[in-house]
Design goal:
Blueprint (H helix, E strand, L loop, with lengths): L2 E3 L2 H4 L8 E4 L9 H8 L6 E4 L10 H6 L3 E6 L6 H8 L4 E4 L2 H13 L3 E4 L6 H4 L3 E4 L5 E4 L5 E4 L5 E7 L3 E12 L4 E2 L8 H7 E12 L18 E4 L17
Helix pairs in contact: 5-7
């Protein structure tokens, strides 16, 4: 059964320095901002973060970056965060860049108990061949690069080549949902679902912040996006401020 926790700070209190933490969201959409802010206010450091990206300079995971609480990131995207790019290029942080669909499937596989899978994404590139810079040295040289991965041809699929990708699991998963009940069942809001369900299943301990907390039984079972069996802690954080990374406004004729 999921535990209803009184505050975001209490929900993340046992996350220790050096933990591996998977975080839901896409850009600043559907991010567990209250849980991230609670981590930022704690003394934890040396975190390994798995997330599609690292927020922006002042929103989401960018707060942890600014505080120098992150040691390593597995992500698909570095853009929109100048501090993330600066730390990466300066050799202050290790970054394992992963194709976006592959990242989602690595998390899904980890949550499903599958150790690895084959995918055509990345074959014939440094993703499969190795050599992607994971960490730079202060002088700009590559200190750590990605290793080569196994590539195999499967005849039943038109003799295409596929690269072996290992699944991802995490010590903790932090997710955001629109509605949750006291049993931990979650409903996400449209595109804010994004990486959240896969992140939730990949975490050994899943912590969910919800905008609206309702008693068990109030959510129609057919409307549940993530069953409570995957959620260990749930905290009611209220209506979330919705941020926009890039506001585009049409010009008047």
């Amino acid at each position: 059964m999921s535990e209803v926790v009184a505050s975001a700070a209490a929900a993340v209190a046992d996350i220790a320095s050096g933990s591996r933490v998977a975080v839901g969201g896409f850009g600043v959409c559907g991010i567990p901002d209250a849980l991230i802010e609670a981590l930022a206010a704690s003394a934890v450091t040396d975190l390994e973060i798995i997330s599609n990206n690292c927020g922006t300079d002042r929103i989401g995971l960018g707060i942890l970056l600014r505080n120098k609480q992150i040691r390593r990131v597995i992500a698909s995207y570095v853009g929109e965060n100048a501090e993330f790019a600066r730390q990466y290029l300066a050799g202050e942080i290790e970054v394992e860049l992963t194709p976006q669909g592959t990242l989602a499937e690595k998390l899904r596989a980890g949550g499903a108990g599958l150790p690895a899978f084959f995918t055509p994404a990345g074959v014939g590139t440094p993703v499969a061949d190795g050599g992607l810079p994971w960490r730079y040295a202060p002088d700009g040289s590559v200190a750590i690069s990605s290793p080569p991965k196994e590539v195999r041809t499967f005849g039943g699929w038109g003799e295409r080549r596929y690269v072996l990708e290992e699944a991802i699991t995490a010590d903790y998963a932090l997710v955001h949902a629109l509605v949750g009940d006291t049993d931990g069942n979650l409903v996400f809001d449209k595109a804010a679902r994004n990486f959240n369900p896969d992140v939730a299943t990949a975490g050994r301990v899943c912590i969910a912040q919800v905008e609206h907390l309702v008693p068990a039984g109030e959510i129609d079972p057919d409307q549940v996006h993530l069953p409570g069996i995957f959620v260990d802690r749930i905290v009611h954080t209220g209506v979330q401020t919705k941020h926009i990374e890039k506001r585009t406004v049409a010009k008047e004729d």
